[in-house]
Fold this sequence. Notes:
194 residues, alpha+beta, four-stranded mixed β-sheet, 8 strands, 42% helix
Amino acid sequence: MVGHRLGERSPAVWAVGGIPFEHPARAWRHVGAAWQHDDLVAAGDYIVGRGGLVTLDQLVDEVELHATRGRSRLIRALSDIRPGSESSEETRLRLVLQRAGLPEPELNPELRQASGVFIARLDLAYRRWRVAVEYDGRQHAFDDAQFARDADRWHAIRASGWEHVRILRHHLRGDGRRAVDMVRSALLRAGWRP
């Protein structure tokens, strides 16, 4: 925990279950001068994500109206925040792939049969090339029931004509080159050209 002084301002208290907290958009702005780009983006993705704590427009307004320290970092992070990401590792994977020149993937779309029957929800998808990319965290390996559901889902994705790329933690180590190579190879096999 790092404390810092705040200037004169109106209260930005936000309550969860009756407990007061700093408003998520303001809390995100406060860390702008201290956090690195990918961490700001991951936090931003989370607070505009499925939980919908705030909207992307609220983050933009917070930066435009109140940011002084860390303003340029926050503006750069805003350009990479995407509603739909569900974990910090999904965000990191997306950023690594985009920095490597790969197309921007769709986040957490549902894959369905032509009849409309649900097959799977994908972490990242390149629908045009029918390439699904998923980040599997360690919790998937230690929960037998989860691992069995995942294995059935992997089979269903491939059976529907999609290439399925599983990215594990060690693929993202360092600069993430192994993850990039795996996804790039799948996209090239599917017909994508840089």
